[in-house]
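[Q] Does anyone have a clean structure-token version of this?
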Amino acid sequence: MLEDQQHVLDQVFETIIEQNIQVLIVAGDVYDKPSPSEASVALFSSFVERVYLETAAAIIIIAGNHDSGQRLGAFTKLYDRKRILIRGTLEIEEKPLILEDDHGPVAFSALPYGEIFAARRAFEDESIRSPEDVLRHEVGAAQALRPKDARWVIIAHAFVTGGLPSETERKLSVGTVETVSNSLFKGADYVALGHLHRPQTAGHETIRYSGSPLAFGFDEADTIKTMTVFDLDADGSLQNFQEIAFEPLRKVREVRGLLADLILEAEKAPSDDYISAILLDQGAVVEPAAQLRPHYPNILQALREKRRELVHASAGRASSKLDDPMGVISEFVDFVRGEKPNEAETKIVTQLIDQPTQEII
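[A] Here you go.
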């Protein structure tokens, strides 16, 4: 999706220029995994360099739970500390980036995502047992170094209570409560959050997820992706608030119907969009995705309606034992086709199973 990402980054850059943006905030995740591809790193690095060289905007970036904090923050000491703040790992001293506008100073505290055990080491506190404990320590460390006369903006990566998740967000904890309370951010004039993919507030208009710039799951097909732009007034209130919609290079969408009808539709209106085909056919269909791919080259899945429900529910575990071959086959057919074998099919399978096995030595 590098081409899609470049298309979106160009729109971010154009907005920085057109609206004379003073601060660009990226609240994680920067990448989709701790060891991103060379091409992904090159794309993002060139974007940051372009913003730095061709605009006057400050740049603030934090690691999310998909990122490697060590890698993302490896060279932060080499950057322009007056304009760039990149935070990858937890630190007991959360020094803000302080910028000046016409109304005075604004302190930006960048709080990267941190695992529980990493937080225990960083803050030397074995009582840390949840994502909320981690973030509470980060906010406390940031507040201690916030200038009293400065307006305060927090950048964090968390699942704040009340947020609406998508299919593709990775859980932030195992065996503990994943969400954190928005009361942790008391005293901040604005909180820029990363993690949830849909643009939304989290209990207050000044605590907000901008969302991901692209859709990463079909449950986000109808979500308009946006970037959040606003002015911070002298008293810390928001002015000129905007959610500027991205125009994706390719849409993420579902098509639904009988396979034959979908093929006819695709022939009439071929598309490079990312497609999920939901099939309403009864009985067997042969390689539906392959039949649609000449017209939908970026088709990603072709599912029966019932199987789609199973996929969304993550119910892919078989319950039949291996010594019950008919049960195993029945479950498999139900998963693939959306219905169990009929009487005639069951009879054929039973006859084959009951045949004596010839061993080859």
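[Q] Thanks! Anything notable?
[A] Residues 58 and 83 are 4 Å apart (CA to CA).
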